[in-house]
Write a structure and sequence with these properties.
Its cofactor is Zn(2+). One of its GO terms (molecular function) is S-(hydroxymethyl)glutathione dehydrogenase [NAD(P)+] activity. The chain crosses the membrane at residues 12-33. With 348 residues, the chain is α/β, with parallel strands linked by helices. It is built from 9 helices and 17 strands. It has helices at residues 132-138, 141-152, 168-179, 194-200, 217-223, 240-248, 273-276, 292-304, 323-329; strands at 2-4, 18-19, 29-31, 35-39, 55-58, 97-98, 101-102, 104-105, 123-125, 160-164, 184-188, 205-207, 232-235, 256-259, 281-284, 314-319, 337-341. A 6-stranded mixed β-sheet has the order 9-5-4-1-17-16, sandwiched between helices. It has a 6-stranded parallel β-sheet with strand order 12-11-10-13-14-15, with helices on both faces.
Length: 348
Amino acid sequence: MCLSKTQNAKMEFFLVVFEIKELGVLYYWVFFWCYLCRVVESVGEGVEELKDGDTVIPALIAECKECLNCSSGRTNKCLKFPVSLSGLMPDQTSRMSVKGQMLYHMFTCSTFCEFMVVNVNFVVKVDPKLPLPHASLLSCGFSTGFGMPWKEAKIEKGSTVAVFGLGGVGTGAIAGAHCMGASKIIGVDLIQNKKQTAYAFGMTDFINPNELDGRSISDAIKDMTGGLGVNYSFDCTGVPSVFNEAIEATLEGTGVTVIVGTPKEPTVPFSPGALIHGVRTLKGSIFGGIKPQSDMPALIAKCVNKEFQLDRMVTHKIALDDINDAFQLIKQPDCLKVCIEINGKSAS
Ligand SMILES: NC(=O)c1ccc[n+]([C@@H]2O[C@H](COP(=O)([O-])OP(=O)(O)OC[C@H]3O[C@@H](n4cnc5c(N)ncnc54)[C@H](O)[C@@H]3O)[C@@H](O)[C@H]2O)c1
Ligand SMILES: [Zn+2]
C-alpha cells in the first residue's frame, strides 16, 4: 500500500492503529510504517533544509554525512541515526498511546497518521512536479530495489542479473539493473501476472518456478547464462528457501547476492557451502544502500523525467474509508501497490 496526502486534506481521524498479532511477527500494538508522501506543516528551530509547504517523503533511514559510515562512501548505514527496531524513540520511550496502552513505532518514522513530528534527517524533499503516488513509491520499495544494483552491488555495465520476487522492490531492482546497463535481467516470480510490468521496467527473461518440471531455479538460471550463473542476484521475496537458490544462481568465484527480503523467522536454514566452496559473496541491505540525502535527488529527477512507468506499479487506488479492502487487494495476483487516497471517494 502507499499513502498520499495533499496539503489541504482534512482528515477526520487522528490515529490509525492496527494490531498485527495475526502476522506472527510483532506482538504489540504498532503504529504502521507506510509508503508515504507528505507536505511540511512547520519546521523546528535550526532546520534550514526545508520550509513550510515543501513536499517530502519520509525515508526508512537517515544520513548525517559525518559519522564513520556516512563519510566512508561504502555504506548507507548511518551510525548517528540508527534504524530503530525496538519500536521506541532514541530515549527508549514512546510518545504515543491509545486508551492508556503504549503504542510502538514501526521502524523509525511511523507514518500512518495525520500529522507526524520527524527528525529532518529522515525526510527527503521531492520536486512537487512528481505525482504524489509516485513520490510515495520512492519512500521505500521502489527505491530499495533500485538501489540494490545501483548503490549496494554497484554492478558493472553488461552484467547478468537475476531478481527474485517481482513486487514493488523487485520491480525497482529490475529498473536499477536496466539503468546500470545490465545485459541480461532474469526475473523470478511464482505469479505469472507480475511479468508484464517487470518487462516494462527492463526485465529480459522470466522464470516461474512452478513451471520448471522439478528443476531448481538456480539450474534454470545457469542454463540461461551459458551454464555459469549470473554475476549478481537480488532477493526481493523474504522467502528463506529462495536465499540459497539466489546464491547458487551466481557465478562461482565472483558472484554477489544481495538480500533485502525480510523473512518472518529470525533464523533460517542456510547452506554455507555455496558461499565457501563457490567463493561467492552474500550481502544484506537496507533501503538498497541508498543514502537519503546524497542519492535520492538523482533518483527523484529520473522519476520527474518519467524515465520509469511508475503508474504501472500503482495497480489499485482506494479511498481511506475503504482501507480494509486494501488488505484483500494486496493479496490479488494482479496487485503491485494499493494507493490510499486521503480525499478519495468511498466505493460503498
Ligand atoms: N531491507 C529493506 O530495506 C526492505 C525495504 C522494503 C521491503 N523489504 C522487504 O522486501 C521484500 C519484498 O517487498 P515487496 O514490497 O516487493 O513485497 P511483495 O509482496 O510486493 O513482492 C514479493 C514478490 O515475491 C514473490 N514471491 C514470493 N515467494 C516467492 C518464491 N518462492 N519464488 C519467487 N517469487 C516469490 C511474490 O509473488 C511477490 O510478487 C519483503 O520481504 C519486504 O519486507 C526490505
Ligand atoms: Zn551518519
